[in-house]
Amino acid sequence: MTFRSEVHSAPSRQDASTLRSSRALESDGRDKQDVLQGTALWHDLNSMPKHYNKPGQGLPVENLGYQAYTTYFGIGTSPPQLMRAFIDLAWSDLVIPAVNCTHCAGKLKYDRTKSPSFESGNGSKITVRQDRYVWGRGEVSSDSVTLGEGVEVQHHPFVEAEQSSSGPWAPESVESVLGLSMKRPVVDTGMTKHFLPGILETMAEEKTLDRDVFSLLLPRGDGDRGDLVFGDYDKALFKGELSTHPLYPENTTDWAVEATSASVMYANGTEAGYQSLAGYTALISTTYPGLILPRHIVRSLINATGADCSDSCTGCEVPCDQAAGLPKLTLNLGGYNFSIGAEEYVVKTRVNWPFCRNREYCAVLVGSDKLLEEPKKIVLGSRFLTSVYSVFDFGNRTVGFAKAKHRFES
After folding, report:
1. Residue 401: CB partners within 8 Å, gap ≥ 6?
2. Of 125, 130, 153, nearest to 140 (Cα)?
3. Domains along the chain?
4. Under a CB-based contact definition with an 8 Å cutoff, are residues 220 and 118 in contact?
5. Which of 29, 58, 56 is nearest to 41 (CA)?
6. pLDDT for 217-254, tens place per residue?
7. Residues 250, 36: Cα–Cα separation, whole Å
8. Entry pTM
9. Which is nearest to 55 in space by CA: 145, 178, 148?
């Protein structure tokens, strides 16, 4: 997915600074605490609830602030070396900071000499850029990647970075990006290039899983924990039945499904806006925080919420104490209706940008499709994914959705 360079009110221009300054990311001391916590989570995999089905148990998913979702994985063997990574459904290349990596102070690093399964490449070096989270240059090597108990992907290629730096959205306590695209994305811009096959491609080639699926639940509230399961899904984490959606269009390599319509509805049932989305694609994204919808629907929602869009520092905002009574969005995806309330499209955040007054506010995270270069496309970002349990089937090329059941819910 590529965006135009213009900035929309959601997310607003202070987002990168907000992400960096959130309390989960503050100091080198906290970075070390994150590492220790991650190690504890890694060792805690054996004691996770036993309701996960074969072949393995779920990886914990955490929200670092402003909808930046991370998990942990292992690289190498005897034992796997822990790494923390952003989850990106549209990325393939795996970049791992090597033990001799520069500009990686305070981060976990990979030591090839400690892994008997390490395989060196041909010595050539490449530069990988991901416009949001990571930049790295180094040799292409391969090793085993461990994604929870019982899920070991052997001989997976990655960039063993000798130089690495974080993008504007990335905190210093995160080492990598776990790309979960089906195939290497066809993207080649000045900021984003793909060279290597993704982890799902290697899984399919090696027949790592009994079923070529992974399932994802993003955490919602403070203290909540999400899950990433490879090879199956967890029935305890959703309500009702999964709706199954073929990928759309048929030849796509994106995690995208068919969109049918969108509407805005007041609490009393009065319709505030409607638009047919015939021929539209709904792209599923873990890295874009909000929703991107047609301009007519965005205008209808902004008008119906009474959002104030006059502050260039914050974009469109609503009074936090009135968020519960705001209108609902309804998206029809392939004949199934999904109701999206204010808890999905409004987020409490803080202005933290030069020349802006430092204050807390509630942002409306709905952007116009003018941000997209491709026509007839909408984006279902991470806030949408907190409301659903998602099953991504890269064997049958489908996505399943069901209403999420978070751990703090009865």
Report:
1. 242, 243, 245, 333, 336, 338, 388, 389, 390, 391
2. 125
3. 18-43+56-208 (2.40.70.10), 235-404 (2.40.70.10)
4. no
5. 58
6. 999 877 789 999 999 999 999 999 999 999 999 999 99
7. 44
8. 0.84
9. 148
